[in-house]
């Protein structure tokens, strides 16, 4: 589960900088995850709490950046999402998806 990716149950990252994760490694895991702006989030605990209901299901296993920014314009949504961050996405080329 997400524990293998340095995930903290309190939502705080255990490391000062987020670990780099690859899509291949994520596809091998058995927990719901999503990517927004190059950051990876373990969202399993949040899915039943999502105010938008089942719409969050479209984000699982996908880059949900456009979906997230289309439906979330407040800073509150970004702060809630940040609690579930487990790392940054490393693209296949070896480069990070974001700075």
Automatic annotation (TrEMBL):
<protein>
    <recommendedName>
        <fullName>Cytochrome b5 heme-binding domain-containing protein</fullName>
    </recommendedName>
</protein>
<dbReference type="InterPro" id="IPR036400">
    <property type="entry name" value="Cyt_B5-like_heme/steroid_sf"/>
</dbReference>
<dbReference type="InterPro" id="IPR018506">
    <property type="entry name" value="Cyt_B5_heme-BS"/>
</dbReference>
<dbReference type="Pfam" id="PF00173">
    <property type="entry name" value="Cyt-b5"/>
</dbReference>
<keyword id="KW-0479">Metal-binding</keyword>
<feature type="domain" description="Cytochrome b5 heme-binding">
    <location>
        <begin position="33"/>
        <end position="90"/>
    </location>
</feature>
<dbReference type="GO" id="GO:0016020">
    <property type="term" value="C:membrane"/>
</dbReference>
<dbReference type="InterPro" id="IPR050668">
    <property type="entry name" value="Cytochrome_b5"/>
</dbReference>
<comment type="similarity">
    <text>Belongs to the cytochrome b5 family.</text>
</comment>
<keyword id="KW-0408">Iron</keyword>
<keyword id="KW-0349">Heme</keyword>
<dbReference type="GO" id="GO:0046872">
    <property type="term" value="F:metal ion binding"/>
</dbReference>
<dbReference type="InterPro" id="IPR001199">
    <property type="entry name" value="Cyt_B5-like_heme/steroid-bd"/>
</dbReference>
<dbReference type="GO" id="GO:0020037">
    <property type="term" value="F:heme binding"/>
</dbReference>
